[in-house]
Amino acid sequence: MADDFKNRSILVVDDEERMVRFIRLNLEHDGFQVMAAYRGYQALDLIRQNMPDLVLLDVMMPDLDGFEVLKLIRESSTVPVIMLTAKSEEDDRIKGLELGADDYISKPFSPRELVSRVKAVLRRTEAAGQATRSEPIQIDERLKVDFGRREVWVDNELVKLRPTEYRLLYHLVQNAGWVMTYDQLLTKVWGYEYRDEAHYVRLYINYLRQKLEKDPSNPKYILTERGVGYRFFDYHKTPAGEQPQA
To answer: Is 3.40.50.20 the CATH number for 137-232?
Structure first.
């Protein structure tokens, strides 16, 4: 895989020069091209001017914190973003994902973890960019998905899904009626490196339910198989509008 991402550009945003040097050395060793920004506004300027393939964004910075920078990035760009967070700050990790980050890395991290996470996010981004040829699927009278056009409609309104939400829905619908385990979903949606991160699945299932379900607390489409994973109800067998059995 070393040559797959050779010369891809990575923007590192961190006010600690030692951390930037550490990241730069390890990414350049693996063939990446690295740019650096030490302030939030500087990072936004570099993104506009250079359009990097991925951004590594620290949470703690002096002028704009990482969350504010991420909000501004997401107003105009879908560039993949990995947040750099303190190991003990779970709330920061959740907040970053909710604001549109693609992943996070907890400090301190090893060079191997850094490169592995960067490559995994780039692989997911490329996979999401490849159009899936398929006919629109009318799940029931409320929900329609068109994976070829990357569109999801609920009650005749277009619903905007983030790339990770879209990939998760795709694999659930393609295996409708079958139980998808946490390991299967993590491997297919996030990559093999994430097989121990079951909380990712739970978090994004919750996001999907909030956007798709009429009553997210009593879901119809995405059903929980306790201790195992999730199952999208078998719309092939269930008449439109009929409540499937959980």
So the answer is: no
CA dihedral 49, 59, 78, 192 (to 10 degrees): 120
Tell me phi and psi for residue 241, to 5 degrees.
90, -15
CA dihedral sign, ordered 196, 202, 207, 208:
positive
User: How far apart are alpha carbons 156 and 144 in whole angstroms?
Assistant: 8
> Which amino acid does the sequence have at 74?
R
| Residue 242: per-residue pLDDT | 47
pLDDT computed for residue 82 by the predictor? 95
Where exactly are the structural domains of the chain?
A: 9-129, 137-232
Domain 9-129, CATH class in plain words: alpha beta
Q: At 241, is the pLDDT very low, low, confident or very high (cuts 50, 70, 90)?
A: very low
User: Residue 103, SS3?
Assistant: strand
Strands, sheet with 103-107, edge to edge from the N-terminal-most edge strand: 33-37, 9-13, 54-58, 81-86, 103-107
pTM exceeding the 0.85 threshold for the entire prediction: no
**Three-point CA angle 68, 70, 73, nearest 5°:** 115
- For CA atoms 162, 168, 174, 177, give the dihedral sign: negative
Under a CB-based contact definition with an 8 Å cutoff, are residues 26 and 114 in contact? Answer: yes
Residue 85 and residue 106 in contact, taking contact as beta carbons nearer than 8 Å: yes
- Contact at 8 Å (CB) between 113 and 87? no
